[in-house]
Amino acid sequence: MYTYDSLLEAITPKSGETRDVFDPATGELIGKAPVNTTADVDRAIDTAVSHQASWAGLSNDERVAYLHKAADAVEANSEALVAILSREQGKPLNGPNARFEVGACVTWLRVTADTPLPVETVIDDGQTFAEMHYRPLGTVGAITPWNWPMMIAIWQIAPSLRMGNTVLQKPSEYTTLSGLALNFILNTALPEGVLNTVVGAGDLGAHIVASEKIDKIMFTGSTRTGKRIVEASSGNLKRLTLELGGNDAGIVLDDVDPQAIAEGLFWGAFINTGQTCAALKRLYVPDSIYDDVVSALADFAAKVPMGIGLDENNALGPLQNEMQFNVVDRLVEAAKASGARVVLGGNPDRDAAGYFYPTTLIADIDPSNELVVEEQFGPALPIIRYSTVDEAVRLANELEVGLGGSVWSSDRDRAREVAARVEAGTVWINSHGTIHPAVPFGGAKQSGYGQEFGTAGLKSVSQPQVIQG
């Protein structure tokens, strides 16, 4: 079992070029990360490819057993992983944050291991017999983001391994230590060469995508980068799963109790300090209860503590990096300049050591304001008035993205009718962003394509093969 110090020591390079890694809450030096090159990527790809046949040659039960061993290893070393994650990413220990994320890694490993994917009989009518099998694709390139660096890595690694693929994973350059630490622990349980890691910036990701030895790319990140991946992947027509930018809309109907939904609205929007692809990022509220919803949400939000992640009392942390701080700051300032009303927050200390942006609610904002139409990816929520449900649905659907959405109502049937009109990969009722490892998840429109989780996720990292006769 590793401690924070011993795990950090284990992943610290003993030679070669390194770079410093800093705590986004305090600016303090955490440790050093390796700097990999494209030559390192090529070697890692070759390692993954060379071990793929032996890994695929194991039985399904054997691979399942390895995933459970990996889950055991993550669980046994969870507090060391939590500490590295909290210090590097910034998220607090408690609430839906660091301990939640590492716990989700264990859950997703186990559920992915145990999800059945039997051979499917397509037709058996006495004249024709055909079965659908799912075979390994080969080697999967997994390119993961900085907001949930461990959990999203498992979303990509676990199904790929389960189906007999080997993996080359590149964590975000903003959360390198978190990726290295997780994979180090996983590799204490997995066979050599099955899970490989390279670390670096976008140029390494581009090199992975362009490699004709990579058979599948799984990517979570911006729509802009996703489009580049589509273009670069044409060399060998590699398969793609792309979970891209959101700007999720929530529609509150006029039959709700504002006090009853305030907590759910808050965590839908501000989980991980708003740094979640499928967070609630624009909220549409009817005129008749607008002021009551804004007031109830502000009352709840004002009580949620923000601060350094290692403080057990905090529930919100800093933004992970200066780039994202500047995006949120710019969008909120644009909203303020337009005459929108600041209900809470909007006043960051730009001279502070950490990238803290206060929980911010912006009311009476134009539906076309930058803060509404551009994904803020941080703790600032615009709340837009509407007059009719048709207007709210039109506003929710008019953007080019559609990862998630939500409808809030005391009448579930009415909510489902509205939800069916929202153009998004997932629409939640009376919650937002609640995911389950057995429920497929993926985007609509320019929020990407392909699904993760459950049997759909296993199929997405497999080659369908029909055997007929």
UniProtKB/TrEMBL annotation:
GO molecular function term, any single one: oxidoreductase activity, acting on the aldehyde or oxo group of donors, NAD or NADP as acceptor
Q: What species is this protein from?
A: Leucobacter viscericola
**What's the family?**
Belongs to the aldehyde dehydrogenase family.
Which InterPro entries does the record cross-reference, listed alphabetically? Ald_DH/histidinol_DH, Ald_DH_C, Ald_DH_CS_CYS, Ald_DH_CS_GLU, Ald_DH_N, Aldehyde_DH_dom, LUC3-like
Instruction: Identify this protein by name.
Output: Aldehyde dehydrogenase family protein
Active-site residues from the entry: E243
Name the SUPFAM superfamilies for this protein: ALDH-like
Q: Where is the Aldehyde dehydrogenase domain?
A: 14-466
Asked whether the keyword Transmembrane is assigned, the reply is: no
Keyword Oxidoreductase among UniProt keywords: yes
